Amino acid sequence: MGARRTTHACLRLIVLVAVGLLAMQPGPSQGQSQAGRTTGLPLPRFVSLEADPVNVRFGPGRQYPINWVFAREGLPVMIVAEFDNWRKIRDHEGKEGWIHASLLSSKRTLMVSGQIRELRRTASADARVVLRAEPGVIGDLLDCDAEWCHVEIDGRRGWLHRSDFWGLLPDEVVG
User: Fold this and answer.
1) DSSP H or E run through 122
2) How confident is the prediction for the chain on average, in pLDDT?
3) Which pLDDT score, from 0 to 100, does residue 2 have?
4) Contact partners, residue 96, CB within 8 Å, separation at least 6
5) At 156, is the secondary structure helix, strand, or coil?
6) Which end of the chain has fewer CB within 10 Å, C or N?
7) Residue 116: how many CB atoms within 10 A of its CB?
8) Rounded to two decimals, what is the model's pTM?
9) CA nearest neighbour of 167 among 69, 79, 61, 83
10) Given pLDDT bands bounded at 50, 70 and 90, which one contains residue 16?
11) C-alpha span between 75 and 140 (Å, rounded)
């Protein structure tokens, strides 16, 4: 029992040191992105969960313990780092962990945030309401301009203001 406890304590220490080293690495300055070391794609970037459940680990490998489990396919997550076939992600609550790349999809999704949001027929605040979506509802992100995004939620297409959901970088244009 003592050896097992010591092994877990050593593993936790290794994880904490690794996370500390990753946190000390210089990131991109605001408004700039960097390229992932594995894929060459920009960081940060948004993707979605390909499956459920998805284990989120303390480090980039199956040898690291599971930190938590996502149970919502399609949930948008932000990739903030890459290591081999592993991606460090950040969720809508700001929590970070590592997911195997095979469990992620390049399909762009969004999650309604804040309060009940109104999906509009056109990209205008006074356009007819097509659907009201509660916080936490997931939809597909089709395209975006500087202020509005064309989305699909529950089979209905319409427009949401960029500030009404999570799943898009501040200056990002999609489509």
Assistant:
1) none
2) 86
3) 56
4) 80, 88, 89, 90
5) strand
6) N
7) 11
8) 0.79
9) 79
10) very low
11) 10
Measured between alpha carbons, how far is 44 from 34 in angstroms, rounded to an integer? 7
Bridge partner list, 156: 153
Cis amide bond preceding 53, omega within 30: yes
pLDDT of residue 62: 97
Do 6 and 55 form a contact (C-beta atoms < 8 A)?
Answer: no
Q: Closest Cα partner for 109 from 76, 136, 133, 154? A: 76
CB atoms within 10 A of CB 92: 16
> CB pairs under 8 A, 24+ apart, for 82-88?
82/36, 82/37, 82/38, 82/39, 82/43, 83/37, 83/38, 84/38, 84/60, 85/38, 86/60, 86/61, 87/47, 88/22, 88/60
- The one-character DSSP state at 4 is H
Share of the chain above pLDDT 90, in %: 75
Distance from the Cα of residue 56 to its chain's centroid: 12
Amino acid identity of residue 16, one-letter, is L
Q: Sorting pLDDT into bands at 50, 70 and 90, what band is 21?
A: very low
**Predicted confidence (pLDDT) per residue in 89-110, tens digit:** 999 999 999 999 999 999 999 9
Question: What residue type is assigned to position 113 of the chain?
Answer: S
